[in-house]
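Question: Hello, beginner here. Any chance you could explain the protein record under this note? Any guidance would be welcome.
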Amino acid sequence: MEKSRFIQFSSLVGSVTKSIQSMKMEKMAHYGLSAAHTNLLCHLAESGEEGMTQGELAQAELMDKAQVSRVLQNLEEKGYVRQRPGKGLYKRRYTMTAEGRAVTDEMETILLAMNRFVSRDIPDADLVVFYRTFGIIAQNLSRLEASVAERKEDTLYE
């Protein structure tokens, strides 16, 4: 039973991830943006005037720093973000421009509508439990991943 639950969980997460990426690509094509562009813009929008560094964005998105660099360069060319002066390429902070905020606000409207659609039949109390539980699973998987990388996973299975 537990084995099939893990397989079911993995399949469901993969299916959800594929659907989300597909919808992002479909909806963001109008703006000439990819899923990576969308995610970085959303992180920068949440960071406010403080902005974020390339390193912080890479960590938040679990994305390669080189890819973050390319996406940010593209977003700069489109006029959606700007670099603040600073030392070192990866330590400079990026913030949204007014145009970037406008696009992000439009994206947020789309994302909220999508969110409402997919969760419309689920009571709010169940959603709270789901997100709390899913957060715990994500944290535990990250810990397991780190332990496997350090070759200490044997102690976790006990």
